[in-house]
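Course assignment 3, question 2. Fill in each field.
Student: A.L.
Task: Predict the tertiary structure for the chain below.
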Amino acid sequence: MRLSTRISLLAAAAAIVASACADTTVVATVDDATIDEATVAALRNSYADGSSYNAEAYRIDLTNMIYLESQKNAAEEEFGLTGLDDPALIAAKIQDPTPEEEQIFASVGADPDRTAATQEAVAQQLVIRDAVAGELLKDEAYLAQLYANQPELVHEVCARHILVATINEADAVKERLEAGEDFATVADEVSLDTQSPGGQLPCPTPAADYVMDFSRASAVLPLGEISDPVQSEFGWHIIIVDERTGPETDQELIANPVPFVHRSVISEVWVPWVNGALQASTIEVASQVGTWSPASNGIVPPPAE
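Answer field:
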């Protein structure tokens, strides 16, 4: 029922191999910024002794550090944003994440090879993303249109539902509820969604995480009321929305869109900007590690591999 979109900002990889970069101080440059060996080595416990590295994992980790430097440089050049690597901002992001960010940090923390430095790198990425997205989402007409016509993209909901196969079954469910039967009891008896005891869906959830039609309905239904049958690709739903949060007016959204808009809206502006920032950067990688490939925005292994 729920769409599960997660981002993995720092990935893992395969076999342990020797790497000549262990004694290299500077392993990459991004414009005028340098990335040293210690910065990358701090990201994994398995790098601690400096004798052997997972070469592919190392290239992935270094690539992510290159992304961060490129984004910081572009954010300052284009928008005058500075201090995005401020330890206080990074600590605040770790201490007070959104529910989505909390899941990202939990995923990183579940990997025993990952260190506190990895958490800080992920937090820095999120700080940069939020700051840049705030600059990119300054089209007042676009935001007003979202508020008026696509409310599912700017609201979170706490909802319950009962899913059945046909509209006749949905009508029967609604009649039972309107006659006073307990919602959870009816849900447990007839709902096809057996993963949601009592019909309760995860709370809160961005309305846009749900499938089309259910998504829109959950964003506009009057609170606490039993809905008419709503059709989706899974069948027919009877829905009750218990809570809904979001901007009270379009002007509130326009004033500060990032806390409200769905991650898909941020991705639409963020991903092209990141790619543009990388393409505009002058990037060099130590030959022991590989060669930077603008075509793939990543590091190509050295010929010996």
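Instructor remarks: DSSP finds eleven helices and nine strands in the chain. The chain has two domains: 20-139+255-300, 155-245.
Grade: pending
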